[in-house]
Design a protein that fits this description.
Length: about 270
């Protein structure tokens, strides 16, 4: 991979904006031909609830009850169920961007791919509340990662585009809780009260196949889908090995979680 500044996928100005603000929008990772194939595969796996038995398909924002419509359907590792989502042009472009931002001199190579998919069906009310992704992860590690959120159709304020708090990637992890303070819910939200000035939030509408980028600490949110079309987002995750922390940080909100999803994952593991 070329790593001189002239040949990197992002301009110096874009990389500087990302490092300073903790997010960035890019207009195009792939073309409509590939997006069409990806949309078909994406819709198929959500219709099939692919991976449900393994705990990979679940309701991010609700009680995750079998045979009930999910508040916020999510599939982890979607390419396991839809090979059309793997090794795409979009993934290659996302990887190059991640490499540039995480290790521009190329001395370490990023790993990752399509990490999860979050669907907001047409006219669907669930929001993705404000959170930091690192709050889901191992508290003993400082991650070196980037999430690249790509909508398979245009993302607008109306259908739930991403929103970010500039500079919040410089914060430590704020106290989180399961959404609605219900430990049966997998999804997390930051606790209130907090000192965040939400009037500073920046919505990032982008075209189909564009992307927003953020590291694990940036506070982000996505509104509900008030449009007549599904809002499909595919999220690529890329990382370098995390750095162990010296302290004994704990994420109590994960320790007390009791989700139907983790029960299904456990059962699937035990029956292998
Ligand atoms: Ni997130």
């Amino acid at each position: 991979m070329k790593t001189t500044l002239e040949n990197t996928p992002l301009s110096q100005e874009q990389a500087r904006f990302y490092n300073e603000n903790g997010f960035l929008s890019v207009p195009c990772l792939t073309d409509e031909t590939e997006l069409k194939i990806m949309r078909t595969a994406y819709d198929r796996i959500f219709a099939e609830k692919a991976g449900r038995d393994e705990g990979n398909e679940f309701d991010l924002a609700g009680g995750d009850v079998d045979n009930k419509q999910a508040a916020l359907p999510q599939i982890l590792n979607p390419a396991k169920y839809a090979p059309e989502l793997r090794d795409t042009k979009a993934e290659a472009a996302a990887r190059e961007i991640a490499q540039q931002l995480l290790c521009p001199d190329g001395s370490e190579k990023v790993v990752g791919g399509p990490a999860h998919a979050i669907l907001k069906p047409a006219f669907h009310g669930a929001i993705t509340p404000w959170h930091q992704d690192e709050a889901y992860w191992d508290p003993k590690m400082n991650p070196r990662s980037i999430s690249i959120w790509m909508p398979l159709q245009e993302a607008t304020l109306e259908n739930g585009c991403m929103q970010f708090i500039p500079g919040s990637h410089k914060l430590e992890i704020l106290p989180h809780q399961s959404i609605g303070k219900d430990p049966r819910v997998h999804g997390l939200e930051i606790c209130e009260p907090n000192d965040i000035d939400f009037s500073k939030a920046v919505p990032c509408p982008i075209p189909a196949g564009g992307a927003t980028l953020h590291p694990g600490r940036t506070l982000h949110y996505a509104g509900s889908n008030n449009s007549p079309e599904p809002r499909r987002a595919l999220i690529f995750g890329f990382s370098l090995p995390p750095i162990p922390r010296e302290d004994d940080r704990r994420f109590v909100w994960n320790e007390i979680k009791k989700t139907a999803r983790s029960k299904r994952a456990e059962t699937a593991k035990n029956t292998l």
